[in-house]
Design brief:
globular, mainly alpha, 8 helices, two-stranded antiparallel sheet, 207 residues, two-stranded parallel sheet
């Protein structure tokens, strides 16, 4: 994968798959929604300009992404009952430095916690990939890129010529495979109707 960490996860007991993972109120963090909306607007620029898609379509895709994000977050929290996480200081320091460059608006009091969440997500994905025998081969990535091109007409040349972007896309494929495995291994329930989606935060007025 594109990230390599020294931090580790080990099992302290076997994962119990018979328990139900419950999701309370769906969380739709504004930065995630804005980033996903921007990415989708760029990916579907041609369809939006031609009228084949509109803001409502983009909003629905964002809602689906938010629901998937909540399922993953709930599973990550549940798995903490069965694992031991050891954060390496150099991993934390590097991630904090990256965050301060890319997201300088993050409060100093929160940056370490956010850094550890980023590291945990990456290493839990690697852990689950081994636990559930999930592999993302080049042919999986290429197939997904071809499907994206057919669906959106978005150029995929940059992914095939830029190694870093190719590996970033591999991570997206990995996340989708892990999400499918989560839905296979666990029963997920929510206090809200998952088919309706969360209410997304409205854009902030520009000053």
């Amino acid at each position: 994968m594109s990230e390599s960490y020294i931090s580790t996860i080990t099992k302290k007991s076997e994962i119990v798959y018979t328990n139900i993972i419950k999701i309370g109120r769906l969380q739709a963090p504004r930065p995630f929604v804005e980033q996903e909306t921007k990415r989708l607007n760029e990916a579907h620029k041609a369809e939006l300009q031609s009228g084949k898609m509109n803001a409502t379509h983009i909003n629905q895709i964002v809602q689906n992404s938010v629901m998937q994000r909540n399922i993953i977050e709930a599973t990550k929290e549940y798995l903490k009952n069965f694992i031991v996480i050891k954060f390496d200081e150099s991993d934390v320091a590097k991630t904090i430095a990256d965050l301060k460059v890319k997201q300088p608006q993050i409060p100093e009091a929160s940056v370490k916690e956010i850094a550890e969440r980023i590291i945990y997500e990456n290493i839990i994905f690697s852990f689950l990939s081994k636990e559930w025998n999930i592999e993302v081969k080049d042919e999986d990535v290429n197939k997904a890129l071809d499907e994206m091109y057919r669906a959106t007409n978005q150029s995929i040349r940059e992914y095939k010529t830029d190694k870093a972007k190719y590996e970033q896309f591999r991570k997206q494929v990995q996340v989708q495979k892990i999400l499918a495995a989560i839905n296979t291994h666990f029963k997920i329930t929510a206090e809200v109707d998952l088919t309706q989606g969360p209410e997304l935060p409205k854009p902030q007025p520009k000053s």
